[in-house]
């Protein structure tokens, strides 16, 4: 075999996966930026500043206010057993002597018709025994209780100890109750004014 028949075998140029133009384009192209996915959370309530719970105040139980005790509903009677000031008028003799009168006066009925009651006009003593027995027991009679009629009122009455010791019966010129006393004072004042005008 002659040398002329030999074919010059030259090594093939290295193949590039990319053409030179493509390589240049890739080199000049902007770098690839991989964006990471952003996770957006739904808006929720903003946590406020933590406040410490204040301890509840311990309130002391308040006691009952100091008030004056209510007085019992007193019946319309007058006795000398109480140490307080008398509710009703004193008898004429005790009033003049300015001493304590312990007579017992109790109005048992009011607005009584005078024609329906049998009584002594001078002493005001009720004479009807059936009416007396309605309000006064036999023991009370023995203890000196009497029934009087004055200014349309039936009055259960007992003499004061001072008049009893003197052997006289207590008299009440101005009346047996506060109402009668006030009325007597008003009438007496009016009569005095009338007398002054006439004189």
From TrEMBL:
Residues 63-75 have a biased composition (Basic residues). Residues 90-103 form the Zn(2)-C6 fungal-type domain. Residues 1-89 are annotated as: Disordered. One of its GO terms (molecular function) is DNA-binding transcription factor activity, RNA polymerase II-specific. It comes from the Eukaryota. InterPro entries: Zn2-C6_fun-type_DNA-bd_sf, Zn2Cys6_DnaBD. Residues 29-40 have a biased composition (Low complexity). It holds the Pfam family Zn_clus. This is Sterol uptake protein 2. It comes from Cyberlindnera fabianii (Yeast). The lineage of its organism: Eukaryota, Fungi, Dikarya, Ascomycota, Saccharomycotina.
């Amino acid at each position: 075999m002659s040398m002329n028949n030999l074919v010059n075998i030259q090594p093939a140029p290295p193949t590039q996966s990319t053409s030179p133009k493509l390589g240049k384009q890739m080199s000049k192209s902007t770098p690839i930026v991989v964006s990471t996915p952003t996770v957006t959370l739904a808006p929720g309530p903003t946590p406020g500043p933590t406040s410490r719970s204040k301890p509840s105040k311990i309130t002391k139980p308040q006691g009952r206010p100091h008030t004056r005790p209510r007085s019992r509903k007193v019946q319309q009677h007058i006795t000398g057993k109480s140490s307080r000031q008398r509710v009703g008028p004193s008898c004429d003799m005790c009033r003049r002597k300015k001493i304590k009168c312990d007579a017992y006066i109790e109005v048992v009925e009011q607005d009584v018709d005078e024609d329906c009651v049998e009584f002594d006009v001078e002493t005001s003593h009720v004479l009807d025994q059936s009416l007396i027995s309605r309000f006064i027991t036999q023991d009370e009679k023995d203890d000196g209780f009497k029934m009087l009629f004055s200014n349309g009122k039936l009055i259960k009455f007992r003499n004061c100890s001072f008049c009893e010791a003197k052997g006289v019966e207590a008299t009440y010129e101005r009346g047996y109750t506060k109402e009668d006393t006030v009325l007597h004072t008003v009438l007496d004042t009016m009569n005095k004014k009338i007398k002054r005008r006439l004189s």
